[in-house]
Amino acid sequence: IFGNNITVRPATITKTRPNTIKVTASFKVAILGAAGGIGQPLSLLVKMSPLVSDLHLYDIANVKGVAADLSHCNTPSKVRDFTGATELPNCLQDIDIVVIPAGVPRKPGMTRDDLFNINASIVKTLVEAVADNCPNAFIHVISNPVNSTVPIAAEILKQKGVYNPKKLFGVTTLDVVRANTFVSQKKNLKLIDVDVPVIGGHAGITILPLLSKTKPRVSFSDEEVAELTGRIQNGGTEVVEAKAGAGSATLSMAYAAARFLESCLRALDGDGDVYECAFVESEVTELPFFASRVKIGKDGVEAVIGGDLEGLTEFEKKGLEALKGELQGSIEKGVAFANK
Ligand code: NAD
Ligand code: LMR
């Protein structure tokens, strides 16, 4: 259901009767900000995962009802709710993957960086608790501005002496999901086959789709490249404007976050063939964090795939050079905030 990158690994499945499969649910997931616009549909999608045994939902308010509601679904995971800072440590005990969509969303006219003042503190506080209670968990940061909140998380984890760069991910899957959708519509391709790597960061021009690396191979005119690139870069704003003050992408984001989570769960479960784009600590450019395809394994990032940056078109090369200044500034802003 999450598109072309998802396959069910035969080894995790036991046939019990003809047409019946049994998948062992064994991973514990916590969602911080679970009562929000992303948090609620994401919690539902995670509740549907056969790989999840425990689903911990945390928010500062309104999470009891969400958890009660979800807990009636007859899927394997056990749902528990946690409200407020005093319950956060319990929420995080023994957790394998923490997903963080807590924070305020954009309104029309705002940039993601305009959310920095509120969301930086929220992410800092939550990551401190993660460091204290489940330092070995994978951390998926959704809260914007991702280009700054991920460096903030890294600095907090360093201050606590538990930073593992292989386990900290900025979730940029929505950019890939949008790119795949828009390209398949434009070129009349079967959606399930389309895969477009999106590199850089997660804001405006820092979102750089590599259309020349689209699978299956497909050619684009210069006009198509310019139009598709612009639409992918502004996909978030398209939704913010359509919602007209009622928030930003929530449903497509929940879908994208669930796809990324499911990929990480498969990696934890031993699948040796899991690749996703994500914003991670990186050496593929001179920037300390960069989104690109990464291979994910049981211990987190196994390899950052730099190969996608070779053989770029002139348009992509220019886009790559153009994004570096803004991305560097956002990274430095996050680092400075965490260390002030
Ligand atoms: P929302 O306002 O609907 O939900 C946010 C939730 O976070 C609320 O339930 C709120 O109570 C909770 N929250 C606030 N402070 C908290 C704290 N200290 N601890 C725990 N929970 C807290 O917003 P949303 O639409 O769900 O968006 C959430 C964030 O995700 C925003 O920053 C938005 O910009 C970002 N986002 C990122 C992407 C991406 O691609 N990475 C996509 C869409 C949205
Ligand atoms: C998105 O890409 O939809 C999110 O980052 C939310 C936003 O503010 O655009």
| Gap from first CA to last CA | 43 Å
Question: Roughly how much helix do the residues carry, as a percent range?
Answer: 25-40%
What would the average pLDDT be, to the nearest integer?
Answer: 94
Point out poorly predicted stretches: 6-19
Rg is: 19 Å
How large is the count of helical segments? 10
Tell me which ligands are bound: nicotinamide-adenine-dinucleotide, (2S)-2-hydroxybutanedioic acid
Question: What is the string of SSEs from the N terminus onward?
Answer: EEEHEHEHEHEHEHEEHHHEEEH
Estimate the global geometry from the Cα principal axes.
globular
Q: In what order do the strands lie side by side in the largest sheet?
A: 5-4-3-6-7-8
Strands, count? 13
SS-derived structural category: alpha/beta
- Strand-residue proportion: 15-25%
Largest sheet: 6 strands, parallel
